[in-house]
Fold this sequence. Notes:
The chain has helices spanning 102-105, 120-132, 226-231, 260-283, 340-363; strands at 3-7, 21-22, 28-30, 37-39, 50-51, 70-74, 81-84, 86-90, 97-99, 112-113, 149-186, 189-219, 241-242, 252-254, 287-316, 319-326, 332-334. It is of the alpha+beta class. The protein has a domain at 1-41 and 63-105. It starts with a strand and ends with a helix.
Amino acid sequence: MTTDATAARSYPCEACGATVEYAPGTDSLRCPYCKHEQAIARVPRQVREHAIEELATLPVKPLGTAPAAAREFLCPGCGARTESDTLSVRCQFCSTPLVADAAATERVVPEAVVPFGLDRDAARDALSRWTSSRWFAPKGLKKVTEAETFKGSYLPHWTYDAATVSEYRGERGEYYYVTETYTVTENGETRTETREVRHTRWYPASGTVSRDFDDVLVPGTGHVTTEQLDQLTPWPLDQARPYQEEYLAGFQTVRYDIEPEAGLETAKRRMAPVIESDCRSDIGGDEQRVSTVDTRYFDLTFKLMLLPVWFLSYLHAGKSWQVMVNARTGEVIGERPYSAAKIAAAVLAALVVVAAVVWLVMRR
């Protein structure tokens, strides 16, 4: 297997000379030894949206993204080499935070980063609240306070902007009511009653709707399922910073393995239900049928953004359970055990209630 030698960057502490790392919730780097903080020099630029046409000018395949490919980080602290397929990692020998130069190897360089807002302790608190609030959880689960493994990672995401114009065809349904007569037999007597029955008249409909989309978010990695990442939303994208390597120091940063062209198709599929809803609103009436929608896209832009996640695993009853925490909002998703005894007790209680209701009805 071949590797790309990368002279990794690290950041020395201005006070003691040790290596500093990003301090979550701040715009500073902090020394893990003397606790000195030094501000990250803010880049005087705006986050740039790239026109979709720029993709045609980029190489078809980014350097070193084949599954077997990795890069070697050369640690400036101890001189050791650490092999990894990430953009940032810790030296496997001295734990120095190492950050690669993305521009040297990536087809598309990150344009923005939402920095970690929760540190390790805050993520642990979020895990504790989550385990304590689970229905039908074993009693011992609420005592979980420590994670077996605890890793902070930036995950790549694509965002897309677009102006859309959609022509549709469908039908508008309008309700009308018809009085119907029917007979009822009760206590041996038959009587005639009436009721209003709803029907629908359908009329052809067509038209044009438009909508602008901003920051349609699409995962840029397949290492975590889209369904899981969607559960961590919403992300406070308005808190993003222009990409700077300093925010990655001390955390792992996953490289994207879903190309922006593929991400665009996913983004269009995410736009489609919103556009169809606009078509239904435009059709009006009481019900709508949408048969065809032809959408044209204008001013398409994209960018690569890094979003922060804490990956945790905790031990319960001899098994490891996986959890993810949105490192900005504290949203927690993941696996959890269930208490068979609590579930059985709940089912039994429900059966008792049903039996009591039946008994009361029978007594009347």
